[in-house]
């Protein structure tokens, strides 16, 4: 199957997933409520108790972490939606159509990019409301949002694979929660690295969520001059480290997901 055919069929499936928003608008409502809730919760409830470091307002420190957390949590929708389609028999219907086998996965992960664009836009507006500002150039700010979207796209393939191997939506929601919660909270998303115990700090420094959080903070210009950055390669080059993780995840989970989809639909 040619890449053009895969892309064309994938876009058809993506449009099907996006039309679902029109028919079930509650999906987008809950997708958007979560980041707004986290921004307001951490900015006004916990913000006064957390010291982001000298010369840095916690609200500006916070938004980069909330962005990273939102795209990671949002990626779980790919797995849940695939598990739901498997349960309801939609995958069997797709299988009977003259279309690329991998188009379902391409369409599912592509439609999630649209969800994330809307979610990031709403969250940025909420951040501006609470006092966050991007001090970087227009290109740097655009690069930060692009990095978040590409990272989310990679994570959605991980969740797509999980969605194909679990028996129900409830299982993937619980399984993803057990993985994503420690991944996001054992990071520098909400508190500075210096606040972690020395042993745990090494894990935090190499956590990909810490890297993308640090990367977007730097691109947004939310890291003041003179702020201490750990002398570890992942934190000194967070954007490059994040890109390496993206490439690694896609190289591993795209073929794994396609193979698992073919195995599942071939039963």
Distance between the termini: 21 Å
Task: State the domain count.
Answer: 1
Low-confidence stretches: none
Structural class: mainly alpha
What is the helix tally?
A: 12
Q: What does the radius of gyration come to? A: 19 Å
The outline comes out as globular
Largest sheet: none
Q: Quaternary state, please?
A: single chain
Q: Whole-number average pLDDT?
A: 80
SSE run: HHHHHHHHHHHH
Strand content: under 5%
Helicity level: over 70%
How many β strands by DSSP? 0
Note the main attributes of this structure.
mainly alpha, globular, 267 residues
Structural overview:
This protein has 267 residues and is an all-alpha fold. It has one domain (3-263). The chain is built from 12 helices and no strands. Helix 7 (138-165) runs antiparallel to helix 10. The longest helix is centred in the middle third of the chain and has 28 residues, at 103-130. It is globular. 40% of the residues are buried. The model has no long low-confidence stretch (mean pLDDT 80).
């Amino acid at each position: 199957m040619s890449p053009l055919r895969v892309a064309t069929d994938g876009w058809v499936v993506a449009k099907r997933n996006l039309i679902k928003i029109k028919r079930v608008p509650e999906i987008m409502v809950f997708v958007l409520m979560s980041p707004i809730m986290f921004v307001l919760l951490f900015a006004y409830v916990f913000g006064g108790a957390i010291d982001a470091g000298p010369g840095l307002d916690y609200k500006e420190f916070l938004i980069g972490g909330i962005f990273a957390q939102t795209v990671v949590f949002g990626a779980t929708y790919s797995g849940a939606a695939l598990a739901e389609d498997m349960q309801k028999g939609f995958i069997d219907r797709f299988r009977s159509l003259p279309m690329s086998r991998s188009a379902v996965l391409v369409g599912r992960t592509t439609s999630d990019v649209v969800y994330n664009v809307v979610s990031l836009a709403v969250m940025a507006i909420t951040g501006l409301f609470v006092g966050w500002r991007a001090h970087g150039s227009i290109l740097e700010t655009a690069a930060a949002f692009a990095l978040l979207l590409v990272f989310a796209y990679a994570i959605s393939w991980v969740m797509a694979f999980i969605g194909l191997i679990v028996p129900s939506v409830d299982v993937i929601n619980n399984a993803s929660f057990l993985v994503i919660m420690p991944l996001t909270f054992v990071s520098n998303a909400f508190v500075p690295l210096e606040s972690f115990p020395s042993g745990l700090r090494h894990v935090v420094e190499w956590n990909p969520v810490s890297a993308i959080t640090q990367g977007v903070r730097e691109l947004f210009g939310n890291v003041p001059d003179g702020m201490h950055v750990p002398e570890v390669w992942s934190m000194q080059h967070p954007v490059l480290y994040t890109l390496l993780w993206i490439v690694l995840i896609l190289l591993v989970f795209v073929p794994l997901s396609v193979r698992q989809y073919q195995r599942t639909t071939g039963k």
